[in-house]
Amino acid sequence: MSIQEQIKEVVTTHRVVLFMKGTKQFPQCGFSSRAVQILQAAGCEDFVTVNVLENEAVRQGIKEYSNWPTIPQLYINGEFMGGSDIMMEMFEAGELQEALKA
After folding, report:
1. Which domain holds residue 27?
2. Which residues are annotated as a binding site for [2Fe-2S] cluster?
3. Which residues are annotated as a binding site?
4. Quick one: which residues bind [2Fe-2S] cluster (predicted)?
């Protein structure tokens, strides 16, 4: 299975997936930490995290999969939402909470 197929399987198998540096319990960059805090503030506790620092192929592959150059990356119901800045904008507008309810 190619790295793209593996990524697709993860984002379509789980409702909410955050590709990040580190883990939900131990984020290893400020943007990843902020993304976790935003999801928790939006009331989402059941999200899955993928630590891109554990696998270079995933770290590069997710950027190609989404055509987005930075990490973290949030997926809800298989759809790419954006990174931490976009997550914050969506949260402040109430859009993230709506997407998480859907």
Report:
1. 3-101
2. 29
3. 29
4. 29
